Amino acid sequence: MSTPLAKILVVDDEAHIVHVVALKLRNAGYEVVTAGDGEEALELALNEHPDLVITDLQMPYMTGVQFCEKLKQHKDLAHVPAIMLTARGYAIAEEDLARTNIRVVLSKPFSPREVLERTKEMLSERNLPDSEQTAA
Amino acid sequence: MAAPRLTVISGMCAALAGAAGSAVGWSVWRAAPVVDPIINASIATVAGSLAVVAIWGPIAIIAQKQFRTFFARLAQNANEGRSEASPAPIWLRPLARAVQAPIAIWSDRTAALRSSVRETQIQHRVAEAERLHVETILHSLRDAVIVTNAFDELTMANTAAARLLGFDSHKAIDCSIDDLIADQELRQMIRNSRSSGIANKQRHVEHAMIDDTDEQGSSRAFDIALVCLPEPSGGCAGVVTILRDITRDKEISQMKSDFVSQASHELRTPLSSINAYVEMLIDGETQDEQSRQEFYQIIKSEADRVSRMVDNMLNISRIEAGIQTAEYSDVDMVEVAEHVIETMTPQAKLKDISLTCRHGPLVYTAEADRDMIHQVIMNLVSNGIKYTPESGRVIVTIENDDASRSILITVADTGLGIPPEVKSRVFEKFFRVENYKRVAKGTGLGLNLVKHIVETVHKGSVGLDSEVGMGSKFFFTIPYTKDDAAMLRKVAA
Questions:
Q1: A14 contacts in B (CB within 8 Å)?
Q2: Who wins on pLDDT, B351 or B90?
Q3: In whole angstroms, what is the distance from residue B344 CA to residue B377 CA?
């Protein structure tokens, strides 16, 4: 356990969704922090410095896209990639995505398996230790 | 009658004068043979002339009369287009035969001309009636219609066009479109259509214009159809421009599209949970039986949520489409409210909320659909409990409102209250106060259904008083009877 665990921030206003995604990732060995809206998530991100963000689109106070824009504007968090879970994948404009670090958009209903696979891919791209490396 | 009588009198006078002359001449000649032969000769000549006049005068007068009568009849026949021969006196027959053939031709032509004139007059009247019909139809159209000529001058505009573009449809005739139409793009469209010269080809353009009649100067969307009028020699004689206001259609289309988008989003959220939790169970991601039970419970509650949402959507849709038939009976509102309270009490107790019903000693009945009223009170009480913090109060009050001949039911809570800026939107489909989404789950359809059941089905009214942090008071009225509902509707109209 010489290398630290990858830390993932999961944001959704639906508690059940946060719960299931967090459980899937925790079972895979990741460290997970959770938030119920964009404001709370931004505060948490500044304190926790996650390696990856998984966020919903429609949330109170600010949307997932607005949250990710703020992340990118922050120098300490500008490099953090994000996965977006949305029931309205078609509604996100390319230019909005371009202002963020959102790399993957998954449509709801989503598969926790797919979320985990994409998480692994994105973390390996960034050459960060994923759970299996850590376990090894 | 005066002229023939004068002629006869003149004839008689002439005859008398002739007779008198002859008598005088003869007696002079007989009585004075010795008188100067010159005088005798003169007297004889005068007497002779008088005799000639006495004989031929009446004959000439009769002949003249016959002549005039014959030609007058001939002219009348010709004028009236009758080609039959007029009876002529014997002495006039050769002349009559000579003139009757050309006169018959003239008569035929006159008859043909008269018939042609009559036909033209009828055609003119028919055309005038048709023009009036077409004008009436054009003026009664809600679409604005303007017709311009090859010089881009107005030749016709209906009432809707005059109102839309702000001119007098009669005074504006022959005026240039530059003086009549403020919208530069519309003028250009008319010019382009005219110069394209492709007759009868309809072109549709969607165009937004500022509504001059609206004080706020809002923009309205128009579907503009332009048709080039054909000219006999080819080319374009003018342009017919029809402007259809499609603002409302677009709004409805947008509302439908928003509804589908909202509904799909709202349904995807619980479906997403169900899908994810089932997959987790399949993948064996739960370590113990307790976690599995928790998952089953989540799946069940999310499935219930989908079911409620679909029920609500169908109910709203049925009411909106007018196919939801209410089963009217005399409903005791106190009994219904108490039943709702009995059902919801366990839920209220979980948050230590007191749930009570207040009413006077009277009977509170209204002609209504019991199940629907139950649903309305249930939705309002359920919201009250959901958005009221622990140890709060939810009170249902039932009163008679004799002024509006309705039962007034109020559901008041000591909950979060509704921000003033969104008060007007709480009855909209899928609307949820953004910041309260995490406080409680909801479909965003409950209050919309309340509004539909109360207003659309029962012709009552719904309202809301609320202050953030102080609680909310939702109220609705149900007319005592269907007749009262009909009367209230008339008064409102």
A1: 269, 272-273
A2: B351
A3: 11
In this complex, which of B269, B283, B302 lies closest to A113 when CB atoms are compared? B283
Indicate if B327-492 has the same CATH topology as B141-245.
Answer: no
Which CATH number among 3.30.830.10, 3.40.50.2300, 1.10.10.10, 3.30.413.10 corresponds to the domain A7-119? 3.40.50.2300
Chain B: closest CA distance from residue A21 (Å): 8
Element (H, E) at B411: strand B406-413
pLDDT digits (tens, 9 = 90+) for B31-87: 555 557 777 777 778 878 888 888 888 888 888 888 888 888 877 877 776 766 667
The answer to whether B303 faces chain A, any CB pair under 8 Å, is no
CATH architecture of B327-492: 2-Layer Sandwich (3.30)
Cα–Cα dist B56/B48, whole Å: 12
Nearest chain A residue (CA) to B265: A87
Complex ipTM: 0.88
Q: Give the CATH number of domain B141-245.
A: 3.30.450.20
Locate the DSSP E strands across B183-278: 202-210, 219-230, 236-245
pTM: 0.57
**C-alpha distances in angstroms, B115 versus B81, B83, B118, B124, B208?**
10, 15, 5, 14, 55
